């Protein structure tokens, strides 16, 4: 086993997930100190502890030590095994919180992953299962992770009580492809999923109507699907949400979402989602802002060739990720303006030399 | 590339990300004005300026991937005039 890597130290609870992911993929142990040490309620939250337990299930030989106060964690990564796993997520975070890091490591497992997660399927903090299915998965398909990639939404679960269930299937790869994606293209279609559980299905149609009233002026190719879940499949709490995605001629995806809040009519929720989509489209690039980290990680792991990708300005999370990725893999990106002649354009080209990461866990055929 | 990026609206991303210890939130929100202003300060002073911002940030940061839009970011789109320039990003718009 490759545990020879030196221990990397971080402090604070921020950026917890991508640091653990980088540790597992690089095989380097990581220690995170001062987790909310100044807080009234110090230490790890239940969802972070739950994520660590899930990662323990997905891997073999991972050693996780949590200090008595919970303010410090040591992770010595083992091998990613995959296989068939079921996990109950705490109701403090949606299943998206758990799926995002899992999607980053699942392709490098020993066996294809078949993960069932139970909990909240849509909330206002993490990517909902709809966006993960329609936007996140296409983003990793760019890297040649294609076959058997699927997310099934079996039951929906709105906060606070959840009751949803999803199944995530991911095949394994030997190596990821190098990305060269610099043409953002023009938006050719808009798709959306509007769902309402344990409330009148009419809410879903009202959201579609309101979103169309803004978007229709731009493009005729709009299809907003009203996804109705009934009875047992609709979870334990009422709620509704609208997820939107815009696809360009070159396959660039941008997404947005808004989730029901008490006392806010569905039309306002739909408008929030719509305006957020316009904002996201305006920010430009070939990659959605909430997927920058995923794409950059796969670029680092890519074959030993120059990968290029055009993106909008990096988010704060992305900036920290770029720094952390350099710590773990020694890869730094070259970041140049995409259009040096156009002063209005804020798009950037991120390029890096992939490390040629090979899935060593994969059983030799 | 970096040496020539002298224009105000060009933020030197590589330098900011890899060779400064500025907080990510600062860099991302860094409009040109802010960065220029920060550039001249000596490191000690900068340190004291950043610290309070950091503690406030930590309380509400949930390590979440979804973008939080402030209300005025979204409500500005209610202005119909803003929608028109966006047309060029769609296939239906002219070049």
From TrEMBL, chain A:
<dbReference type="InterPro" id="IPR023797">
    <property type="entry name" value="RNA3'_phos_cyclase_dom"/>
</dbReference>
<keyword id="KW-0539">Nucleus</keyword>
<protein>
    <submittedName>
        <fullName>18S rRNA biogenesis protein</fullName>
    </submittedName>
</protein>
<dbReference type="InterPro" id="IPR037136">
    <property type="entry name" value="RNA3'_phos_cyclase_dom_sf"/>
</dbReference>
<dbReference type="InterPro" id="IPR016443">
    <property type="entry name" value="RNA3'_term_phos_cyc_type_2"/>
</dbReference>
<dbReference type="GO" id="GO:0005730">
    <property type="term" value="C:nucleolus"/>
</dbReference>
<dbReference type="InterPro" id="IPR013791">
    <property type="entry name" value="RNA3'-term_phos_cycl_insert"/>
</dbReference>
<comment type="similarity">
    <text>Belongs to the RNA 3'-terminal cyclase family. Type 2 subfamily.</text>
</comment>
<keyword id="KW-0690">Ribosome biogenesis</keyword>
<dbReference type="GO" id="GO:0000479">
    <property type="term" value="P:endonucleolytic cleavage of tricistronic rRNA transcript (SSU-rRNA, 5.8S rRNA, LSU-rRNA)"/>
</dbReference>
<dbReference type="InterPro" id="IPR036553">
    <property type="entry name" value="RPTC_insert"/>
</dbReference>
<dbReference type="InterPro" id="IPR020719">
    <property type="entry name" value="RNA3'_term_phos_cycl-like_CS"/>
</dbReference>
<dbReference type="InterPro" id="IPR013792">
    <property type="entry name" value="RNA3'P_cycl/enolpyr_Trfase_a/b"/>
</dbReference>
<feature type="domain" description="RNA 3'-terminal phosphate cyclase insert">
    <location>
        <begin position="182"/>
        <end position="282"/>
    </location>
</feature>
<dbReference type="Pfam" id="PF01137">
    <property type="entry name" value="RTC"/>
</dbReference>
<dbReference type="InterPro" id="IPR000228">
    <property type="entry name" value="RNA3'_term_phos_cyc"/>
</dbReference>
<dbReference type="Pfam" id="PF05189">
    <property type="entry name" value="RTC_insert"/>
</dbReference>
<dbReference type="GO" id="GO:0004521">
    <property type="term" value="F:RNA endonuclease activity"/>
</dbReference>
<feature type="domain" description="RNA 3'-terminal phosphate cyclase">
    <location>
        <begin position="9"/>
        <end position="335"/>
    </location>
</feature>
